[in-house]
Write a structure and sequence with these properties.
Its EC number is 3.2.2.-. It holds the Pfam family Pur_DNA_glyco. InterPro entries: Formyl_transferase-like_C_sf, MPG, MPG_sf. Keywords: DNA damage, DNA repair, Hydrolase. This protein is α+β, with helices and mostly antiparallel strands. The chain has a single domain (about 10-205), classed as 3-methyladenine DNA Glycosylase, Chain A. About 15% of the residues lie in helices and about 25% in strands. It is built from 4 helices and 8 strands; from the N terminus they run αβββββααβββα. Helix 2 (about 105-110) crosses helix 3. It is globular and about 45 Å long. The chain starts with 8 loop residues before the first helix and ends with a helix. The protein binds a DNA duplex through strand 3, strand 4 and helix 3.
Length: about 210
DNA sequence: CCAGAGATTTTCT
DNA sequence: GAAAATCTCTGGA
């Protein structure tokens, strides 16, 4: 493994750009090339992280073995998936935000809807989870044990951008960290959106992208 | 293209 | 009881 998943999520996140994650479910295989991620750190280090206030039943997987999947349910209807990083006992994870479907496109479209364009199949964290067929039942699963497989890029991606994270509000409103990583010139990268509570601020001052 | 609002449930204050 | 690591649809430019 060229990348040490036990490292901090800030280090692992850009290394996952270009990696291919596969899920071989009974319905078939879907693989996608990761084009956009976000890093989240542990207790007391990152106000935007689920682990910020310590271990809870929901986030306990984040404190577990690196290389496992942390799935969570949010906004009453969506599931999102992370790859757990950092040594056991310390919580940090990489949120998978978007990817390009490179295998099993028919199955992915079956799950997402017949009218969905190829580029939108896994464009956004909740969409990615649906396209890949991941559910809350996969919380704690190993990303490199069947039915999952993670193929890391032989050469680390270059030419990615670092921006503020999406949907995260920190002290004073803004996310203090630029921990969103996205490959440049990738149509599958999700459109950048600021946190809902910052929309009026954005209208006043303007925000990048 | 952009902005607004609704859906709906887990989690923690 | 409010907010949340979101998405989809609607209506307008």
């Amino acid at each position: 493994m060229p990348v040490d998943l036990a490292a901090s999520a800030v280090v692992v996140a850009p290394a996952l750009l270009g990696a291919v994650l596969s899920h071989d479910s009974p319905a078939g295989l879907v693989s996608l090339r990761i084009t956009e991620v976000e890093a989240y750190l542990g207790t007391g280090e990152d106000p935007g992280s689920h682990a910020h206030r310590g271990r809870t039943p929901r986030n306990s997987v984040m404190f577990g073995r690196p290389g496992t999947l942390y799935t969570y349910f949010t906004y009453g209807m969506h599931t999102c998936a992370n790859v757990v990083c950092s040594p056991e006992g310390s919580a940090s994870a990489v949120l998978l935000r978007a990817g390009e479907v490179v295998a099993g496109e028919d199955l992915a479209r079956n799950r997402r809807g017949e009218k969905v364009s190829a580029r939108d199949l896994a464009r956004g964290p909740a969409r990615l989870v649906v396209a890949l067929g991941i559910s809350m039942a996969d919380n704690g699963a190993d990303v490199d044990r069947p039915p999952f497989h993670l193929e890391l890029p032989s050469v680390p991606a270059s030419g990615y951008e670092e921006t503020l994270r999406t949907g995260v509000s920190g002290p004073g409103g803004a996310d203090p960290f630029r921990w969103r990583f996205a490959l440049r010139d990738e149509p599958t990268v999700s459109p950048y959106k600021v946190h809902p509570s910052l929309r009026s601020v954005r209208a006043d001052r303007g925000v990048q992208r």
